[in-house]
């Protein structure tokens, strides 16, 4: 698949041939859904915790005698039915992460890249570099390129001036190619790849 490369100034900067096995697949929503669910579950903190009856600091003495009062047979004030008692079947601290095969994760990334290419939400820029770390100039460049909601993926090392000038712009995320992931690709309208990022992805999936 031939694709036009743009410069940060919005001008054409040549052509690149994208690998069909990475950018030309027919996207499968079920694989993308499994990957997004895996990512969100893995980053969930799982620190929710309530006190059970064994963790309540309260007397364990029997409330009153077993027989003769006409009342129910209670044995502890820590029971869940009493005010100040433990919570029955409450949440406990745990990990929400679950397994997803490595091959499925790799396939999901290729399907996410293909989905952006098919929907017209893919842009390739020759070099992500800036002469200075000025946000105002970067806002103008993005406006000329039509980028209002985008994930920008650079090479292994991001240009310091570029990342600093872009990090304060709303709805713009900048990541090195090692940080590319399905969830961030799908949550932004446009995926912007540098030439270095394209080469790194093709090398990764070779």
Automatic annotation (TrEMBL):
> One GO MF term, please?
structural constituent of ribosome
In terms of domain of life, where is this protein from? Bacteria
A GO cellular component entry from the record: ribosome
**Statement: the UniProt record of this protein carries the keyword Ribonucleoprotein:** yes
Q: Where is this region: Disordered?
A: 65-99
- Protein name, per record: Large ribosomal subunit protein uL4
Q: What's the name of its gene?
A: rplD
One Pfam family, please name it.
Answer: Ribosomal_L4
Q: Which family does it belong to?
A: Belongs to the universal ribosomal protein uL4 family.
Where is composition skewed (Basic residues) in this entry?
65-76
Q: Which organism is it from?
A: Aurantimonas aggregata
Keywords on record: Ribonucleoprotein, Ribosomal protein, RNA-binding, rRNA-binding
Q: Note the InterPro entries from the entry.
A: Ribosomal_uL4, Ribosomal_uL4-like, Ribosomal_uL4_dom_sf
What this protein is reported to do is described as: One of the primary rRNA binding proteins, this protein initially binds near the 5'-end of the 23S rRNA. It is important during the early stages of 50S assembly. It makes multiple contacts with different domains of the 23S rRNA in the assembled 50S subunit and ribosome.
- NCBIfam families registered for this protein in UniProt: rplD_bact (TIGR03953)
UniProt GO BP: translation
Gene3D superfamilies this protein is in?
3.40.1370.10
Tell me how this protein assembles.
Answer: Part of the 50S ribosomal subunit.
């Amino acid at each position: 698949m031939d694709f036009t490369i743009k410069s940060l100034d919005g001008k054409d900067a040549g052509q690149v041939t994208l690998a069909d096995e990475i950018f030309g697949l027919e996207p499968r929503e079920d694989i993308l859904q499994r990957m997004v669910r895996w990512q969100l579950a893995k980053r969930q903190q799982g620190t929710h915790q309530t006190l059970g009856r064994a963790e309540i600091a309260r007397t364990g003495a029997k409330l009153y005698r077993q027989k003769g009062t006409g009342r129910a047979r209670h044995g502890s004030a820590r029971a869940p039915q009493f005010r100040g008692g433990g919570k029955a079947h409450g949440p406990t601290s745990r990990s929400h992460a679950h397994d997803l095969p490595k091959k499925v994760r790799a396939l999901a990334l290729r399907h996410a890249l293909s989905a952006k290419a098919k929907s017209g939400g893919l842009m390739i820029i020759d070099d992500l570099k800036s002469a200075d770390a000025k946000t105002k100039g970067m806002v103008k460049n993005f406006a000329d390129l039509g980028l209002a909601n985008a994930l920008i993926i650079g090479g292994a090392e991001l240009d310091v001036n570029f990342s600093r000038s872009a990090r304060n712009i709303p709805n713009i995320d900048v990541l090195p190619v090692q940080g590319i992931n399905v969830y961030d690709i799908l949550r932004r309208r446009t995926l912007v790849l540098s030439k270095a990022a394209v080469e790194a992805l093709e090398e990764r999936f070779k």
